[in-house]
Amino acid sequence: MNPMKFAVGFGVAVIFPLMVHYGVATFSPPPDRDDYQPPHRPVAEVKMSEEEITEWEAQRDAINQEYKAHAKVFARRLFWVAAPIGLVVLALGAILKIPAIGTGLVFGAIFTLLDAYGNYWQYLPNALRFVSLLLAFAILIVVGYRRFGATDAPLSE
């Protein structure tokens, strides 16, 4: 592959998942960790009663739970936008006749799916994990078969 085709394919593969991620973040911003900082615990020299320590830890835990709840909302929105787009673009990349762009879209779709799954994996039920991964796997097999199945020579003759 010539360097320009490689550069175009690589650029599409890198920019596409970033575009999807920040597109979702534009309309549904992820929580900023700095907005969820617990109050500073007094320095060790300051004596705190057991009750004050317990109250401080409860505040810290409540703030962390609030952050996690907002992060989960963002991850869910990212998943439900990025996963379907990734699957569609994966199929689209397979049927494009321009190799650099098609290859870039296939890689970009895979990276987009990794972003979607990576952020929401811990919240997905196993059945949805399985079905969505099965769909992605099937698309990849179809892509490989249609692109290379009829043209590749057998391994041994």
Walkthrough of the structure:
The protein is mainly alpha-helical and 157 residues long. It has a domain at 3-32 and 73-149. 75% of the residues lie in helices and 0% in strands. The chain has helices at residues 3-27, 50-95, 99-120, 126-149. The longest helix is centred in the middle third of the chain and has 46 residues, at 50-95. The protein is elongated, with a radius of gyration of 23 Å. The mean pLDDT is 88.
Which short descriptors sum up this protein?
single chain; 157 residues; mainly alpha; 4 helices
The poorly predicted ranges are: none
Strand content: under 5%
Task: Tell me roughly what share of residues is in helical segments.
Answer: over 70%
- From the N-terminal CA to the C-terminal CA, the straight-line distance is 27 Å
Indicate the radius of gyration in whole angstroms: 23 Å
The total beta strand count reads 0
Number of helices: 4
General shape: elongated
Question: How many strands, what sense, and barrel or not for the largest sheet?
Answer: none
Secondary structure layout plus pairing:
Elements: H1 3-27, H2 50-95, H3 99-120, H4 126-149
Helix pairs in contact: 1-2, 1-3, 2-3, 2-4
